[in-house]
Write a structure and sequence with these properties.
heterodimer, A: alpha+beta, Chemotaxis protein chec, seven-stranded antiparallel beta sheet, 3 helices, 30% helix, 29% strand, B: alpha/beta, Rossmann fold, five-stranded parallel beta sheet, 5 strands, 40% helix, CheY-like_superfamily (chain B), phosphoprotein (chain B), two-component regulatory system (chain B), Response regulator (chain B), Sig_transdc_resp-reg_receiver (chain B)
Chain lengths: 165, 130
């Protein structure tokens, strides 16, 4: 997915979110959606490495206004389908349609992005989610401000925040 | 009791539907504010609406103002359930006529607690989600 940005560099506060805050809010969202026993564990990944799942779903929301940034969630395909099955109360992952995955992953990034927005200076506006099957590709006018590499049941999950350069 | 769940995410509607259905509510769903208004105009007038803020076509704030502009719908309780957590927007929503405000992520207990505060649920029904 090519991430499109519509930032106004003249008005942006370039403050970056605290990675620990982003980790905690991501865990809160994850536990609320999947259940109290479904923990996300940290995963060691070299800086600059692309998201390394075989199949990937990615979703972004853009924050504009007093603070500007792009919040992205990338999920292993199986993680995305299990998340969707849990949210929609569908047993098993075989019957989960791609449209349902897009919807569930979009709501996940909406919740993570909305909570990142609440950490940053406002007032600002959150976009509707953009979701795609495939890795997120970022334009050259943004830089990675924060990245969390996590694992759920051994499968990779990545949350990143990009801000204007 | 009847509840209308207004959220552009089917997954989030599913989560909220399970919570309020387990509490005995009859439910109706809408993917945006305009669809919710269509349900109201068609005769499904709920006791409570659970309303997302950020939706296509018509957002939750606009929906609240539309509902409050119609005296026939003055008895509907309006509860925002949203990731929008800026203080100024919470104040705007409450000033426009929302009764309660829940910020995502939430637990089922948080929804139950708000419904109790609003008088839509008896505290004795707490165990319904246990």
């Amino acid at each position: 997915m090519n991430v499109l940005t519509f930032f106004d560099p003249s008005s942006a506060d370039l403050e970056t979110p605290d990675p620990e805050d982003v980790r905690m809010l991501t865990e809160d969202v994850w536990l609320a959606l999947l259940g109290e026993d479904e923990v996300l564990l940290p995963r060691l990944v070299p800086p600059g490495s692309p998201f390394d799942a075989a199949g990937v779903w990615s979703a972004t929301v853009t924050v504009t206004g007093g603070w500007q940034g792009v919040v992205t969630v990338e999920l292993d395909e199986d993680v995305a389908r299990q998340l969707t099955g849990t949210m929609l109360d569908i047993p098993g992952t075989e019957t989960v349609a791609d449209g349902d995955v897009a919807d569930a992953v979009g709501e996940l990034v909406n919740m993570v992005g909305g909570n990142v927005k609440s950490l940053m200076p406002g007032p600002s506006t959150l976009s509707l989610p953009a979701v795609a099957a495939g890795r997120a590709a970022f334009p050259s006018d943004v830089t990675e401000a924060c990245r969390l590499d996590l694992a759920w049941r051994g499968a990779p999950v990545r949350v990143s925040v990009h801000i204007p350069q | 009791m009847r509840a209308m769940i207004i959220d552009d995410s089917r997954a989030m509607r599913s989560i909220l539907r399970r919570i309020v259905s387990d509490l005995g509510f009859e439910t109706c769903e809408a993917g945006h504010g305009q669809e919710a208004l269509d349900h109201l105009n068609a005769g499904f007038v709920p006791d409570v609406c659970l309303i997302d803020w950020n939706m296509p076509v018509m957002d939750g704030y606009t929906f609240i103002t539309e509902v409050r502009a119609n005296p026939e719908w003055r008895d509907i309780t309006l509860m925002m359930v949203t990731t929008e957590s800026e203080q100024r927007n919470i104040v705007r929503a409450l000033a426009a006529g929302a009764h309660e405000y829940v910020i995502k992520p939430f637990t089922p207990d948080a929804i139950v607690e708000k419904l109790e505060l609003l008088g839509l649920l008896q505290p004795a029904q707490d165990g319904a989600l246990a």
